Amino acid sequence: MKAPRVPDGLGGPLSEPLFQRLALIGMGLIGSSLARVCRRKGLAHEIIATDSSSAVRARAIELALADRVMETAAAAVEAADLVILCAPVGVMGAIAREIGPRLKPGAIVSDVGSVKASIIKAVAPHLPSMVHFVPSHPVAGTEQSGPEAGFSTLFFNRWTILTPPEGTSPKAVARLASFWTGAGAYVEIMQPAHHDLVLAITSHVPHLIAYNIVGTAADLEEVTRSEVIKFSAGGFRDFTRIAASDPTMWRDIFLNNKEAVLEMLGRFNEDLSALQRMIRNGDAEGLFDLFTRTRAIRRGIIEQGQETAAPDFGRRAGET
Amino acid sequence: MKAPRVPDGLGGPLSEPLFQRLALIGMGLIGSSLARVCRRKGLAHEIIATDSSSAVRARAIELALADRVMETAAAAVEAADLVILCAPVGVMGAIAREIGPRLKPGAIVSDVGSVKASIIKAVAPHLPSMVHFVPSHPVAGTEQSGPEAGFSTLFFNRWTILTPPEGTSPKAVARLASFWTGAGAYVEIMQPAHHDLVLAITSHVPHLIAYNIVGTAADLEEVTRSEVIKFSAGGFRDFTRIAASDPTMWRDIFLNNKEAVLEMLGRFNEDLSALQRMIRNGDAEGLFDLFTRTRAIRRGIIEQGQETAAPDFGRRAGET
User: Fold this and answer.
1) ipTM of the complex
2) Which of A66, A192, B282, B314 has fewest C-beta within 10 Å?
3) Residues of chain B with C-beta less than 8 angstroms from the C-beta of A185
4) B281 lies in a domain?
5) A312 CB contacts (<8 Å, ≥6 apart)?
6) Structural domain of A205
7) Does a structural domain hold residue B180?
């Protein structure tokens, strides 16, 4: 079901490309969206793509996502002045080992992984000293995966966080920031460890508890799966969206941001115990107080353009 | 921001009304949506409305939601053959006490509360024996409240659960089922206690953990509120929608479905502890397995028309 195209604010191509040759390693949701926006905005003169899956490479060719699609990451990075790793967190180190010796001196290497400290640890040792490693994380996505799922406005009005390790060339950071700005994103610079803590609460723990409650509901015996599905409009279905995200990507995120996730999950559990006690004790005032406080954050998210104000996410927009 | 009106499947008026006079006690999201759909589908010859708030009554008059808007529930139910209580769970008993002596013999009394056993306990004793009490729960809603928030297709393609107490007239149950079918809903009959268990997992616990994580995020010191807002597109914002629901309504639900909620929350907590252990132990296979299993339920929900298949809830429909 394809909705009619609506105008967006991303606009047309820059007067000249920011990079000569961009190599995208991985053509999933993020990699293929980057390919699309780079083409549309003319961010790179030439786009080279690859993916570890031959089926995905074939789709990338059919969809004309890049100027050339190579069979290996090592071949794809040849002469590239910007290389972006768009692969699950768990394979970033292996890709870095493969491409390290083939990187052009002076090239900028980046990635789009959802954790940063562990990626830096896995990737940096494999990169030669004359390339600039500027890790990035575009905080954008949908529950869908693969080269068909991407679209050029995925990053528009969303934040991309750069976490350059100490000593990174400020010029390289600024060039990469311009690239993300060109893709429609806002850019913020952060320490890797702080990034991992912020994302643990804004993304990783939400996914974890969404996966968890969907799992709980699926395993019940007193309530059938058919009942869960029928009556999901009571709130449950909101959780199923992010619990339908790519399993490999999310497995890697939890394995690679263990400490921050467990820390934030600990806070969540403490608060949930308190809330459980309020229900057990019939603490009407405590419940009302929490349920009132939580509205303010959504208002902030809507006001800052990170969410739609339409009721029910606009699922049934236009009904009267 | 009003999206363009799209055609819907609710259709036009019935050839003749199912009820002569419908009294709606409460003009919030549900009551005002009922008023709209009853008008549009001609489900009742005459619609009488009331609300405990004079401001809401005034809005109901401005919006022409009913034929007449009365100042009290007692006045509103006069000569009505269908009375529906559309008020927070905690005040249902008091309304029943007020209207009991004024109900027309043979009238059907229903409600739209999200818990059923405790409402039956609170309401039934106040109703005279010659009226039929058929509790109902339309599993539909948005995070918005008040008479402006309602719309005629709120119940369309959603399930309404009827929980008639033992001994209820089957004819009264069938008449009320026709009413909900006329409003576009599917109807299911259930034991009150089973309803409360099903809704605990499909609605009440999801709301509870959404309120909880939004509260956790709001209270952090290492991560600022501004960071939570900026980077909420990573998943957190999905939770803020249901955590923006009406605080009075939700306080009452948790106070009145304590046992089922604590039971389901216990299951959720057990599963979350197991998941926490998987992360701590780096159990890649266990994580992957859960994250794969949870996709099936969403597929079921989409296939059965209870959810949109558009990525990201269709928040940015039409982008390419």
Assistant:
1) 0.93
2) B282
3) none
4) yes
5) B142, B143, B241
6) 194-282
7) yes
